[in-house]
Design a protein that fits this description.
Strand content: 15-25%
Helix content: 25-40%
Order of helices and strands: HEHEHHEEHEE
Distance between the termini: 41 Å
Shape: elongated
Number of strands: 6
Structural class: alpha/beta
Strand order of the largest sheet: 3-4-5-6
């Protein structure tokens, strides 16, 4: 008979700290698999995923505290997540990606009109923050904002890192005179956005 499964995942006490650190922290989940049968480990991992439903991008790594098994993999995961935390996507590459997203799945209409999205840039890393210029930021449905976040993660990774997108109004003077495209005005008012 398998030994009873002790709690080896996150607890309710973990969530306030996780939420408080959302803007800055890297997220890594670990499972101590010592003395737990395979079926038990899978059950704990499933339960942990349920508890971390608000952050499905958190990686979970199984390791042994007694033998050190899995420690090398954990260190590798930490390095990968830290690299994602610092990652910057070039503006040109980001906008080519964004054009493809808009072509295949444009934002839904609100009040009979579809909001227009013009331009995206990565404003910061550590953690990553993206800014999208729009003619009507308030009309962009939350579900579409989440869709854009998921597409960014699918295209560029960012495993284990919270992503934020801020939608801002575009003004006429934001187009640069060289004809190279719109330029983000840092004085623009923030109009909300999505975050994980």
């Amino acid at each position: 008979q398998d030994p009873p499964i002790r709690h080896i995942g996150p607890t309710a006490q973990d969530f306030p700290a996780a939420i408080a650190l959302d803007a800055e922290a890297l997220r890594i989940g670990t499972l101590d698999a010592d003395g737990v049968a395979l079926a038990g480990v899978k059950a704990v991992e499933t339960r942990t995923r349920e508890l971390l439903a608000f952050a499905p991008w958190v990686p979970i790594h199984k390791m042994s505290a007694k033998t050190g098994r899995g420690l090398t993999g954990l260190i590798k995961m930490i390095d990968e997540v830290y690299a994602s935390f610092q990652q910057r996507v070039p503006t040109g590459q980001l906008n080519r990606f964004f054009e493809a997203v808009l072509a295949t799945h444009p934002p839904p209409t609100q009040g009979g009109k579809a909001p227009r999205l013009y331009y995206i840039t990565q404003a910061t890393s550590r953690p990553p923050l993206f800014v999208v210029m729009s003619n009507n930021p308030e009309a962009i449905h939350f579900s579409y904002q989440r869709y854009v976040i998921n597409q960014i993660r699918k295209a560029f990774g960012f495993e284990g890192v919270p992503l934020r997108i801020r939608y801002k109004p575009r003004r006429k003077h934001m187009w640069d005179r060289s004809g190279g495209g719109p330029g983000a005005n840092r004085e623009e008012r923030s109009s909300g956005g999505a975050s994980e």
